[in-house]
Write a structure and sequence with these properties.
The structure holds 2 protein chains of 2 kinds. By secondary structure, chain A is mostly helical. Chain A contains 14 helices and no strands. Chain A has a domain at 88-272: Orthogonal Bundle (MetI-like fold), CATH 1.10.3720.10. Chain B contains 12 helices and 2 strands; from the N terminus they run αααββααααααααα. Chain B has helices at residues 2-6, 15-25, 30-48, 88-124, 126-141, 144-155, 159-185, 189-197, 201-209, 214-237, 249-256, 265-294, and strands at 69-70, 76-77. Classes of the chains: A mainly alpha, B mainly alpha.
Chain lengths: 310, 295
């Protein structure tokens, strides 16, 4: 396992260096128009040149990249061009907001999807199975901004129960976070439910379950004690990988509800060409991607002793 | 003996015949038929758009007419008009053209690139595999959304850049699937036979390996078409989509969103349109998987 961790760590660092270098190079090719965004569309060429010169963007490319990466390793990601503040000051609160949102989504989505998946998979082809499967295809087919539209039409404009934005100006509010959570749970639960169902179906057709049923063990006990344990291995890995989706996949929801999260920060930075914010956000995203993959692999071996890493 | 050698091969079935027999396979799964009907309905609408009795999608007529309202010239705005007075039904149908064309093109390009990467990595192995797998891993650990936004915001929001972004995001996944399939297929006897005949590597890849990997790939392609549709609409929603004024479903939602309190119908129509098309692709994929499991 240590070998695997070391391997993963090495490839993560390699990927981070590659990715950050590519992003830096993209910015390099585009820095003149970024200067235009800072100084306004009517700024002259000389003004932009002066701005680039003053902020050190005309220093040799490699030298700047090296300085930045040395600082980044120590936790200093530079200053945001757009927000004129250290990136760290902006990044962590936003990441915290997204973590709150993601945590709530997980809290609702996991019990819901596992229960539905297990119920559907208990008896393949039954009415319950069919209806749960079709519901989950339906909900995963409605993209977040479409379901957000439908849910706002119902809860915001018709029933007037919930606010239409989640900017949280007066601090955290349950009413404001309800819709984003609903939208994400609705979109995300179908996938996990289907995975759980598939895995449950497979387990239910295996010999040891048939033996257990034939031995006369009560059906309830067969499901809870014998089937679930093996059926939940595959969904576990999928659930951990959903962390990745929740970090950057929520951009649309954050934009729709004006929620001040990580995704919105990244989108704004990308549209502005705010290079240090983009770099920091991407590195965080790559870290979460590789880390969740690692957790999912480790979890898989722990849950299923038949699998060993070579 | 010579008689047998000279006997002509039975003629290969024509393209149309193959198509019809593959389509009739769909009958085995009602889910696949439902998906096919949804997709085919949208394709038909998109194709017929120029000859259907529709208002021009980009010309302002009367703003904020509710669905079903009578138009000045005696016609009807079946889905109402938007804030600029453009007919929503017409924008939805012409928007279907955009989505279908770009989603298909983007998925096709991603498939060509992904299949090429996968078959080379899987068949040649060694350094080819190492290098291609590393590239794929870099791209896969890049969060998809970041990839889309960075590519489209740096290179400009045009159809071709969207194709490029989708290719970058999807090709690694396709590559992994194809690589896995090829690793299995290359141990088959017919591949050894081809190698013994002295066929070129390219021939083996294109004629022996890829056609035999098509089963799982067709299901995956249908799912991916759905994702790509969502992606294109989502980029449109975020303001990174196809350039205006041509109708774009995602953009229609983002334009309608601030007006939700009194013109909610403006956003509902495109949201239903996107969902139904994606549903079509997902149902088709599900049905195809079901059919392939039966065999």
């Amino acid at each position: 396992m240590l070998v695997l961790a070391a391997k993963r760590l090495f490839s993560m660092i390699l990927i981070m260096v590659t990715v950050s270098f590519i992003l830096f190079a993209l910015f390099e090719s585009d820095k003149f128009s970024v200067a235009g965004k800072v100084l306004g569309p009517y700024s002259s060429t000389e003004q932009r040149e002066i701005w680039l010169e003053k902020n050190g963007y005309n220093e040799p490319f490699l030298e700047r990249y090296l300085t930045w990466s040395l600082n980044a390793v120590q936790g200093d990601f530079g200053d945001s061009i757009q927000l004129k503040a250290p990136v760290a000051d902006v990044l962590w609160p936003r990441l915290g907001n997204t973590a709150i949102l993601a945590g709530l989504v997980f809290a609702f989505m996991i019990p819901l999807s596992l229960t539905l998946g297990v119920i559907a998979g208990m008896k393949e082809g039954s009415v319950r199975d069919r209806s749960i499967s079709i519901t989950s295809v339906l909900t995963t087919s409605v993209p977040e901004f479409a379901s957000a539209t439908f849910l706002s039409a119902v809860f915001v404009y018709s029933l007037k129960w919930l606010p239409g934005t989640s900017a949280m100006i007066n601090g955290f509010s349950w009413a404001e976070i309800a819709l984003p959570v609903m939208v994400l749970v609705l979109y995300g639960f179908g996938y996990i439910a289907r995975m759980t169902r598939a895995s449950m179906v497979e387990v239910m057709t295996s010999n040891y379950i048939r033996t257990a049923i034939l031995k006369g063990i009560p059906y309830r006990r067969v499901i809870l004690r014998h089937a679930l344990r093996n059926a939940l291995i595959a969904p576990f890995t999928v659930i951990v990988l959903q962390m990745n989706w929740l970090l950057s996949g929520v951009i649309v929801v954050e934009v729709f509800f004006a929620y001040k999260g990580f995704g919105k920060l990244l989108l704004d930075a990308a549209l502005f060409g705010d290079i240090y914010v983009i770099e920091a956000c991407t590195l965080v995203a790559v870290f979460v991607a590789v880390f969740s993959q690692f957790i999912s692999d480790i979890g898989y071996t722990l849950l299923n002793p038949r699998i060993r890493f070579s | 003996m010579t008689d047998l050698a000279n006997k002509p091969y039975p003629p290969a079935p024509g393209f149309l015949k193959t198509l019809i027999s593959s389509l009739s396979l769909l009958r085995e799964s009602p889910i696949a038929i439902a998906g096919f009907v949804l997709i085919f309905g949208w394709i038909l609408l998109a194709l017929l758009a120029p000859i259907l009795p529709l208002y021009d999608p980009n010309i302002p007529l009367e703003p904020f007419k509710f669905p079903g309202a009578a138009a000045k010239d005696g016609g009807t705005y079946w889905l109402g008009t938007d804030h600029k007075g453009r007919d929503i039904l017409s924008r939805i149908i012409f928007g279907a053209q955009q989505v279908l064309v770009w989603a298909t093109l983007a998925t096709a390009v991603a498939y060509v690139v992904g299949m090429a990467m996968g078959v080379v990595a899987g068949y040649l192995g060694g350094w080819w595999d190492e290098a291609i797998s590393f590239i794929a891993n870099v791209l896969l650990s890049f969060p998809v959304m970041v990839l889309y936004i960075v590519i489209v915001s740096y290179m400009g929001a045009t159809g071709l850049n969207i194709v490029l972004a989708v290719t970058f995001a999807s090709a690694p996944g396709i590559m992994r699937i194809v690589r896995g399939l090829v690793l299995d297929l290359k141990t088959r006897d017919y591949v050894f036979a081809a190698q013994t005949r002295g066929e070129s590597t390219l021939y083996i890849m294109l004629i022996e390996l890829l056609p035999n990997a098509r089963g799982p790939l067709i299901v995956d392609a249908s799912l991916r078409l759905g994702y790509t549709t969502i992606t294109i609409a989502m980029l449109g929603y975020l303001g990174l989509g196809l350039p205006p004024p041509d109708p774009d479903w995602g953009k229609m939602i983002s334009e309608a969103q601030p007006l939700g309190s009194f013109a909610g119908y403006m956003a509902i129509a495109p949201a239903v349109a996107i969902s139904s098309l994606v549903l079509g692709f997902n149902l088709l994929a599900d049905g195809l998987r079901e059919i392939s499991m039966k065999d």
